[in-house]
């Protein structure tokens, strides 16, 4: 999958995050809550990228609830976006579908991005997916919803 070509930028109206996608890819129907968007490669509909976000639910004040709602710990952070945000980037190679998933935390909002393709083609998409993950941007805390 070449990195050259014409790009567009998806901007989320609810959470103000954004990421690039190839202009030839098609948008899936948006969810009613406007928390994200998915795009598919029209030449390979099983190849998909999607981004979404959500407010971190305030837990009860028990120790267990605090641990469950904790942001991505810095020890789990293994990736830095071009914007300079640290997050967790995970790759899952499955028997049929493989994926790359990015999780970022900024304030009380958790941001996600995921790319998927058939496993036998994931090698071809890897650099392309990685590039898009690097370009994922979130608003500064002062501009968050």
Task: Provide an overview of this structure.
This protein is mainly beta. It has one domain (7-143): 3-Layer(aba) Sandwich (Protein Transport Mog1p, Chain A), CATH 3.40.1000. The chain is built from two helices and nine strands; from the N terminus they run E-E-E-E-E-H-E-E-E-E-H. The chain has helices at 63-68, 122-135; strands at 7-11, 18-22, 26-27, 36-41, 44-55, 79-80, 86-92, 97-106, 109-118. It has a seven-stranded antiparallel β-sheet, with helices on one face. Mean pLDDT is 87; it is low at 65-70.
CATH fold category name: Protein Transport Mog1p, Chain A
Number of helices: 2
Task: Count all strands and give the number.
Answer: 9
- End-to-end span in angstroms? 35 Å
| Average pLDDT reading | 87
CATH level-1 class: Alpha Beta
């Amino acid at each position: 999958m070449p990195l050259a070509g014409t790009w567009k930028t998806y901007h989320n109206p609810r959470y103000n995050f954004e990421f690039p996608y190839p202009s030839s890819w098609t948008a899936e129907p948006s969810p009613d809550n406007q928390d994200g968007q998915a795009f598919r490669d029209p030449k390979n509909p099983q190849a998909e990228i999607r981004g979404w976000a959500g407010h971190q639910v305030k837990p009860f004040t028990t120790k267990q609830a605090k641990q469950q709602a904790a942001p991505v710990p810095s020890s789990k952070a293994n990736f830095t976006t071009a914007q300079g945000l640290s997050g967790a980037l995970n790759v899952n190679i499955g028997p049929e579908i493989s994926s790359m998933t990015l999780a970022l935390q900024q304030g009380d909002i958790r941001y996600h991005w995921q790319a998927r393709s058939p496993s036998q083609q994931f090698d071809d998409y890897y650099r392309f997916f990685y590039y898009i993950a690097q370009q994922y941007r979130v608003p500064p805390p002062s501009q968050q919803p």
